[in-house]
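Researcher: Quick one. two chains, 482 residues in total.
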Amino acid sequence: MRYGGGNRSRLLLITLIVSSLFLITLDLRGVQVLDGLRTGSQTVLSPFQRAGNTVASPFKNFFSDITHLGRTRNQLEQLRAENFNLRTKLINRKNADALLKKYKTMLDLAGTGDYKILSAKVISQGSSQSFSQSLTIDAGSNSGIRRNMTVICDSGLVGVVKEVYPNSALILLASDPSFRIGVRIAGTQQIGILSGQGSRKAVLQLIDNQTTLSVGDVLLARGSQLNRPFVPGVPVGTVIAVDNSAGAVAQSASVKFYTNFSALGVVAVVVGAPKTDPRDALVPPKPRPTPIPTVTILVTPSPSPSATK
Amino acid sequence: MITRQLSFSGVIFLFIYTLQESFINQVRFPGGGFSIFLIFALVWSALSTPEVGAITGFSAGFLIDLSPSSSGPVGQWTLILILTCFGIAFLGFGDDKSRGNPITIVFLVVAGVFLAEVSFLITGALLGVNLGSFTQILIILFGMTTWTLLITPFTLPIFSRLHAFTFDTGSRI
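Model:
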């Protein structure tokens, strides 16, 4: 028999809907209690997220690793020959080396830019069910992190600190659709606004429509007033396509971020801004093309039979 | 009896929510992955009465809203899940033929996840939430629906047993 509903059921449904609308209204009006609830839930969840990160770390990037299986087949065959303990040690060592390399590159970047940084481990990736791009790190207000601080990694800009909790912080990734940053092009110093698109690609809108863009141009953070939320000079990305459509109010371009947001293990929060703008000091070096080996064949002509006659 | 049902449901909900936030979210699945918590809430509603479905939707939606990675205002997921869970419970309730059929429940859950995500997009657009490029939205919608279709048949027996244990119904899928 099909359920027909009843007065009690209708009353309950209406009460719940009104309650949810009430919550939305309170949140949109900026009532602190709801922010407190979110802060509380993150404080409770962060130890579980740390534990989850430890458990999930061996197969975190399982699906992306599968796509690169062909490249690592030789390495896998070598590893198969070793015993289980040795393999575990090797994986741990490799993981530590990769982290060390990332830390070193990050420190080099921070040193060149004269940024004072605080490194942190990523303990949770934001869920994509809300179409937002965020992650949680294992350092918070107890370590000196505040809202609106720039977050970088070894390759460049990661995002900005959105929320801070005592022992963790929520980072809004540069790829988030709501993310906007003022950028300038290294060399020409043209300025524009870069918007996240939910993926590793972003859209750049130039302020001045008289200027021109070209593929390969490097974008650096312009920096904000009092260096919050963005410190100047951080490498952001590179132009991969230019939209030259006639009649456009401002020139726009597609940009690829330097940072691979799906493979972030450690990040650094810029807790101290540089005294002077590092200008173009942090522009990453262009990749060197692999030299193609050339083979020179020397042929000594033998005397022709006709000449001997 | 009600105290037992409420306390059991509360513990199970909090456990699945913690599992989602601290473990499932760590793994980068292609196409946006899936939400085990959303699947659980919808399966729970599909097996319950419409009243329990609405309360399930309210609780599950409120927990998702409390997640720091949730981009919309608090209450948005609550509203969406009240309506989705009530709708799913309403469709299945009273018709034991469809309610006892796992294929129908899997279909209801997949449709529920899709509808919940589309409703989130629409209400998000009305409330001024930035949602990203159209292509990215399509990828996530397609990815989440496909993942839900793959995951639900495996989780349905566990969730149905938990539901039967909590409500002492005895009927399992």
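The mean pLDDT of chain A is 81.
Researcher: Thanks, that's what I needed.
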